Amino acid sequence: MVGDSFAAAPKVGDDYRPWYIQATEKLGMNCENHSMIGVSQDWCFWKLSMHFKELTADDQILVVLTHPGRFWFFDDKPQMTNPNIVNIDKELSKDQLDAVLKFMTHIQRPPLDIQQMSHRIGWLNSQIERYKLRPAHILSAFPLMVDIGYDMSELEDWSQYKNVIISNGNLQNDIQIKELKQGEPSEYKVWKGYDCRYNHLIKSNHEVLAERVYQGITNGTPIDLKTPGFKTNVIQDSIFEDKDFIEKELEPFAITQRKKYLETDYQEPWMKTSGLMDLFKKKGLR
Fold first, then answer.
1. C-alpha closest to that of 20 among 179, 202, 209
2. 18: left (phi over 0), alpha (psi -120 to 50) or beta
3. 98-126 pLDDT per residue, tens
4. Could you point out which of 196, 212, 213, 216 has its C-alpha 20 to 30 Å from the C-alpha of 229?
């Protein structure tokens, strides 16, 4: 498996079994996880390319496909791919931040993102054929298409690939955001930049997702994220005072760290202070 924070392993010493562990146990398999928080599609496919020769027809590839707009800016910082990372200005130098700002302002645009993603999926399809492996599953972390007025229909031919099976729905829109209680203005207003869920999902939805992944892989069908069954409408400000909810659904260590973060390290997102957020709003991007 390769992917971003939706698939990243818990911290060392944390014995929680995320959705992908639960799914592979159902499948009677072991999970070799090469995911990392914050990474881009290009990093994930680069990582995957290094392991193809090790794989056999008994193995199953699962790609948790992150947002197509992320970019692997700097070789030694694969996690710094997204200007929406709250503290990116503390991780990069002034020159690096300036380069990111200019790239996002003058070069980055959805048609290129989608074209490159289409090429990556096509490459994966051909590699499965080349090495005679079972079809790879793609679990979409975010919407794959960004609709801001460009005609990209010629690139959206992934359903025709016999060696790649793409999920029905995506983790962000069909599970993560729907966990937010109706009436809450946004997830950022609740978490303030520090999500306290494992892989952005409450534990109850890890169980449901594990079953959906198991069914999709077993049946050779798209992993179903749209059919009702996931828990919704439960995340709100008051959860931080609800010890039972924290123990049942959240990552307790993250709750402690979030409190410390808000007391000592909280900052407005760099994307907002740099002006990129306003620029993206004008372009109709998320």
1. 209
2. beta
3. 999 999 999 998 889 999 999 999 999 99
4. 196
| Nearest CA among 221, 173, 153 for reference residue 67 | 173
For residue 125, which phi and psi values (nearest 5 degrees)? Answer: -60, -45
Which stretches of the chain score pLDDT less than 70?
Answer: 147-148, 284-286
In 10 A of CB 220, how many CB atoms?
10
* Sign of the alpha-carbon dihedral angle for 106, 111, 115, 118: positive
Say if pTM beats, i.e. exceeds, 0.90.
Answer: yes
**66-83 burial string, b = 16+ CB within 10 Å, else e?**
bbbbbbbbbeeebbbbbb
